[in-house]
Specification:
Length: about 675
């Protein structure tokens, strides 16, 4: 027997072991290569690929529209009427083709996700809609297609996706497994999370495009976008466009000092940043986000003498065009003076929307015939009429002095509250044809609520040097004997121009440019402007609007720092330090947003501490910490003690509930 010869079976075992080891080595090498390749691609993209955690979508068995608003089925047009904006930084066909992001970017090579518009947008508070003539791709309420917008990442024009008025001013509340759509109510969206979630979806799609074998996500995207035009050349061009778009987006990240969260937006600072920083390419004009406000409800607003929480703007066209610029309508700030301020704003739609909102002058018939406040639904718990009667008496005693008589009373419609607006132009006293509702603007020293938003317009300055802003705006000014009147003044460029007046002048120049380009006769301009002068004021206070429909407008105070009316009617020590925003479940007892048990635990554990102990989000919903500047829930207090912002005595439980029952009737 030859012992030097290895048995055949052993040879096979050694060979098998050798190939097994080599195969394992190859797998390790390939895995390391893939990991390094993916890591390199992630670094190259320079964009966050991990999306934020979003709350679960609150599914209901039915949806109802509170169409006592007077709009009925026609409101569908309003939901998707373009203002000429390109709010989302990608083309329209990209958005409808984009898949929602994976929770972890390393999983993008495995399986597909639902489309972003059907999955993530509803979780972010956008309201689902079916396909229709006005909305062929079933976009949520408040999104519209805007043609012919230039995209730097594409280096060409394309159809864009922009916010409509309805994006911020259509509310939703859920009760008893029914979703109620509130036309003109405050939106429940979170635009900060939208930016992060959309960015992650784009980034993951771009990452997928870097791998020729594991590129299923990008392939699905490309075939949806390109359709019958799909081929190697168009696919590669789309890949480059996607990468270039992400590189462009990396350079435009907001500085957030106070998180906005669900139902809130720092509209004034964002408009200023868009107009005086982005549109002018002047980063020195940028201001951090630090004064968020609850989206305001807009019924009755068309007939106010002043709008915005701080009562700063008068003319509806200036208000609406300024809002369109804030959500990224294009405007030219560098062309020759005769063409400067040309914009993509859709003025025809702005005027049509305002007409729908306003209706005819309501005083003669003592009824708003445009957008009306929603009525307490018949399938909600029945109103306690005895308690409501007591609440009416308390309202007249405690609330009417600031918020005016209730709109459903004869007193509200008297000439004491409805007056024509007088102003001085070219030394001549003029007045508006119609009378408007004169609102009380309460000084900060009296109301005591968070000052951040009221301080934006008076305190912020912008550099308008070389813009040729030169135009006239009107503002309250004293004459020689100290009498204050609305007077026109000339606005000129300055390195430290007042932001509020400069914004009014900027929008006025934009409006005038459109009138000139479209040959609008002088006789029609006043009608388009709503029959009011372009007056602005930059005081330090907040307006007290009528409380019709207030039950459907949570959260409360201008900055959304109070979840229910019951808490609003309480002393400072009784108000929760933390509230959760993002839940659409309606508290029919306390009138507001249902608060989870974990928020009650948070309040009992941390309310008396003086440092930040909570993250901004929990389970995808926003946790508002009222200890932070900009988030304070101070002021508008009912207390027996002498405190800043006191407007009435301390109310017992029965008195609070009586006022709540009465507010349900308005």
């Amino acid at each position: 027997m030859n012992t030097d010869v290895m048995p055949q079976s052993r040879i096979k075992r050694v060979a098998k072991s050798k190939w097994s080891w080599l195969f394992t080595l190859v797998i390790i090498v390939v895995s390391l290569y893939v990991v390094m390749k993916v890591s390199s691609a992630i670094t190259k993209l320079e964009y966050s690929l991990t999306p934020p955690k979003l709350p679960a979508y609150q599914q209901t068995s039915a949806t109802k529209y509170l169409n006592d608003s007077g709009w009925g089925e026609n409101s569908r047009w309003f939901y998707h009427a373009s203002q000429g904006t390109a709010t989302l930084p990608i083309p329209y066909d990209w958005l409808i083709a984009l898949e929602a992001p994976k929770s972890n970017p390393w999983w993008i090579f495995f399986g597909s996700e639902d489309l972003f518009i059907a999955s993530d947008l509803p979780k972010l508070g956008f309201i689902k809609q079916d396909e229709s003539t006005y909305n062929p791709n079933a976009l949520p309420i408040g999104l519209a297609q805007t043609p012919s917008i230039y995209f730097p990442g594409l280096n060409r024009k394309s159809n864009a996706v922009g916010f409509t008025c309805a994006a911020c001013h259509t509310g939703q509340i859920i009760h008893d497994d029914v979703r109620y759509i509130v036309d003109g109510g405050p939106a429940t969206t979170d635009l900060g999370l939208l930016t992060k979630s959309l960015g992650a979806a784009l980034g993951q799609t771009a990452l997928s495009s870097q791998f020729s074998i594991l590129d299923g996500r990008f392939e699905r995207f490309a075939k949806r976008v390109l359709g019958s035009n799909y081929n190697v050349l168009t696919r590669n061009q789309l890949k480059d466009d996607l990468t270039n778009t992400l590189k462009h987006l990396v350079t435009s990240v907001d500085v957030i000092n106070v998180t906005e969260g669900f139902t809130r937006l720092d509209a004034l600072n964002r408009i200023g940043n868009q107009v005086f920083d982005t549109a002018m390419d002047r980063p020195e004009n940028y201001a951090p986000i630090d004064a968020p406000v609850n989206y305001p409800h807009i019924w009755t607003t068309s007939w106010f003498d002043w709008v915005q929480y701080d009562g700063s703007i008068m003319q509806p066209l200036v208000r609406n065009a300024g809002e369109a610029l804030g959500v990224e309508a294009f405007v030219d700030t560098t062309g020759p003076d005769q063409q400067r301020f040309a914009s993509s704003i859709n003025y025809h739609n702005l005027v049509r929307m305002e007409k729908w909102l306003a209706g005819d002058q309501p005083q003669a018939n003592q009824e708003i015939n445009g957008l009306r406040a929603p009525k307490w639904p018949s399938d909600f718990p029945e109103i306690d009429t005895d308690a409501a009667k007591k609440g009416q008496e308390l309202y007249q005693d405690l609330c009417q002095g600031c918020h005016l008589p209730a709109m459903n009373t004869t007193a509200f419609w008297q000439d004491d509250y409805w007056q024509k607006i007088q102003y001085v132009e070219n030394g001549e006293i003029k007045e508006t044809e119609d009378a408007y509702l004169t609102l009380n603007i309460i000084p900060l020293t009296h109301i005591g609520t968070d000052p951040a938003q009221a301080e934006v317009l008076p305190n912020r300055t912008v550099d308008t040097t070389g813009l040729n802003l030169n135009t006239e705006v009107c503002t309250p000014l004293p004459d020689e004997d100290g009498t204050v009147a609305l007077r026109y003044v000339e606005m000129k460029d300055s390195a430290t121009a007042n932001y509020g007046l400069s914004l009014g002048a900027f929008v006025q120049r934009t409006n005038l440019q459109w009138f000139a380009q479209n040959f609008v006769p002088d006789s029609q301009i006043s009608t388009m402007e709503g029959g009011r002068p372009n007056c602005l004021q930059v005081g330090l206070g907040y307006k007290a609007r009528p409380l019709n429909g207030v039950w459907a407008t949570a959260p409360f105070l201008h900055n959304g720092s109070i979840a229910t009316i019951y808490d609003l009617l309480s002393t400072q020590s009784e108000r929760p330090t933390f509230i959760e925003l993002g839940n659409q479940e309606f508290d029919v007892v306390n009138l507001g947003i249902v608060q989870p048990a974990k928020i009650n635990t948070l309040n009992s554990k941390y309310s008396n501490t003086y440092y930040k102990v909570t993250p901004d989000y929990a389970d995808g919903r926003f946790v508002l910490d009222t200890r932070e500047p900009g988030n304070h829930n101070t002021g508008h207090l009912f207390d027996d003690e002498k405190v800043t912002g006191k407007i009435g005595p301390k109310l017992n439980h029965d008195d609070k509930m009586a006022i709540i029952e009465y507010l349900k009737t308005l």
